[in-house]
Amino acid sequence: MTSPMLTFLGAAGTVTGSRFLVECGSSRALVDAGLYQGLAELRRRNWARDEVPAAELDAVVVSHAHLDHCGYLPRLVSDGFRGPILCTAETAELVEIVLRDSAHLQEEDARHANAAGYSKHHPALPLYDLADVERTLPLLTPVEYGVAADLTPDLRTVLEPAGHILGSASVLVDAGGRRVLFSGDLGRSRHPLLRPPASPPGADAVVVESTYGDRVHPRPDPGVLAGAVRRTVARGGSVLIPAFAVDRTELVLLELHRLVEAGEIPRVPVYLDSPMALAALAVYRRAADGGSAQLRPEAARLGAVLSELGVRGVSDAAGSIRLNQPEEPSIVVSASGMATGGRVIHHLAHQLPDPRNCVVLTGYQAIGTRGRQLQDGARQVKMHGHYVPVRAEIVDDPDFSVHADVDELLTWLAASPSEPEVVYVVHGEPSSSDALAARIRDDLGWCAVVPRLGERVRLD
Asked: What is the pTM of this model?
């Protein structure tokens, strides 16, 4: 048998597009199949020819349901992949929601680009469509945490809780007796709903994320969100909160409820304008009502909290259009979290020019996204071919991040029962990956490497 190999097909030198190829003998499997997001040069990689033809892949393992980890799956199926897609049951539920929304947005963006004539491609086409998604969903194969599953005769996998979003997992792959552990996105010890990540199993090599590999999260300051709401309502404006539909929306609504109950913000209408977020919220509520072991005991109150806050779900287009210019001060939570697509784009286009309004950013904003532009102080942003002036107040609230910071990443690694031969640092901007690799070398004394895109390494 030839040596088992690992190839970094994504999330190398950037924080998106997670995709890692494991080969052993004649077996080939991907760990994650994520979309690139952000800069145009990154997004163009979604259209590049695959290093390995999709039809030659035996299986895919998905760590969790965020688009940068699962969003490329329908393209693989469109290109001929027919193998199983292993993930947790909760991830399978959320992936269905995320992929249908992704295909819908891509089809809508292509139609809009063709109608407005601003695309460089004629005609503009979606990367994949809803039909590709429907062919993908039957391939989803739920597995339980801690239970070994065969990918091929030469490859086996075990999933362990990662504490990032519901169903998220770290992925251990046994390739002919050599064990490589993929952290996936790791959560935080203080996540309001989820229990902390499980300690890592022993592995010969570890592939670890580094989204926040160069920083420690600041001490929580609930006054940031509370102050933004109070100021905005006082001047007669509305608060727009771009939030990831999966997990981030739940955390934002929980905090708004706490602030209202504590009398720290006025009670104003709260709208959840995202069909995907509404569907994901239903998955979280079912898990909470069912007593999921992934969730903290206090998650059982999720349904009651939403009722007490009076959250108004908006699923129809007409209702969403009305929220472009709210009739009274209100709070609108809408996807996507980095303002890369979805209904929040239309809200931003209408609300950014008005200085009475406020936009609260609630998580990591990748380079090249509108969220990052706003975070960096842009005075105008481009949407659907038009520039929109930024006169609204922009507030960056880091308290909602559910990515482990550098200290939490090191604590997780240090809990390994044995020292790996090498740690590969991925899924981060170059400065973050370099900083984490240096800390691993200095603090733990381990070999740590930041791999290049396309780099291929032996696992034996």
From this structure: 0.92
Q: Are residues 151 and 256 in the same domain?
A: no
Q: pLDDT digits over 412-429, tens only?
A: 999 999 999 999 999 999
Q: Tokens for 234, please give them.
A: 């006082």
**DSSP element (H, E) containing 252:** helix 248-261
For 102, counting Cβ atoms within 10 Å of its Cβ (0-12 exposed, 13-18 middle, 19+ buried), the class is: buried
CATH number for the domain that contains residue 117: 3.60.15.10
357 close to 348: Cβ distance less than 8 angstroms? no
CA distance readout (Å), 222 to 255, 265, 398, 399, 400:
8, 11, 10, 8, 10
DSSP state of 189: T
Retrieve residue 57's tokens. Answer: 């892949």
DSSP strands (E only) in 244-292: 270-273
How many other C-beta atoms are found inside a 10 Å radius of the C-beta of residue 343? 24
Query: Which residue do the tokens 């739920």 mark?
Result: 142
Domain extent, residue 14, equals 5-215+402-458
The token duo for 215 is 């920083």
Tokens of 414: 């240090």
Instruction: Answer with the one of 381, 400, 419 that is the final residue of a domain.
Output: 400
Q: Which two tokens stand for residue 56?
A: 């030659």
pLDDT-derived band at 50, boundaries 50, 70, 90: confident
Instruction: Yes or no: say if 458 and 5 are a contact pair by the CB < 8 Å rule.
Output: yes
In this structure, are 437 and 303 located in the same domain?
no
